[in-house]
Write a structure and sequence with these properties.
With about 180 residues, the chain is of the alpha/beta class. It is about 45% helix and about 15% strand.
């Protein structure tokens, strides 16, 4: 009888923990958003996002938009997106990520933003989804204590294809 109780408890715990251990990446299409991929209800990583799509992002349940694009990037409309976020009632965080010369505080500022309860769940985007997925991988390693291989695999599922950004993750993630 004790063995059956232990099995039932272990099975119940396995069911509760399975989603956290095997985060599923789902890709969908949202008008005005390039390369939209989300991990359950925790985060979405995406590429170019138009200001017109911000209201729909809010309707999907996200509490923040974290924009990693530089204002000088072709097609970036930081001011328009910030205004759309304000109008939609969603937090807007702009953390420009220059891959050639990243701000030394970028990772710390990103981790503060993405772990702030007022910003979760977060919609994180750049131009293609590469930088967004890379920053999420760093969060997985540093905050969630995931091993590097697992975090990089999820980042690849979310859209990280750049070898340079993989190196960035390995250089900046402190397990």
């Amino acid at each position: 009888m004790k063995a059956i109780k232990r099995f039932a408890i272990a099975f119940g715990l396995a069911l509760l923990l399975a989603p956290a251990l095997n985060a599923q990446v789902t890709k969908d299409t949202i008008p005005g958003v390039t390369n939209y991929a989300h991990v359950q209800t925790t985060v979405a990583c995406a590429g170019a996002t138009s200001p017109a799509s911000v209201a729909q992002i809010k309707q999907l349940g996200y509490k923040s938009v974290i924009n990693l694009r530089e204002a000088t990037e072709q097609g970036a409309d930081i001011d328009g997106e910030a205004a759309a976020a304000k109008a939609a009632g969603i937090n807007f965080v702009h953390l420009p990520f220059n891959t050639r010369m990243p701000d030394p505080m970028l990772v710390d500022n990103f981790l503060k933003a993405v772990t702030n309860p007022a910003n979760v769940p977060a919609f994180i985007h750049c131009a293609s989804g590469n930088r967004a997925a890379a920053m999420w991988a760093i969060k997985r390693i540093q905050v969630d204590k995931w091993d590097t291989d697992r975090a990089l695999a999820e980042a690849a599922d979310l859209g990280m294809t750049s070898p340079a950004l993989k190196t960035f993750v390995l250089d900046h993630a402190k397990p």
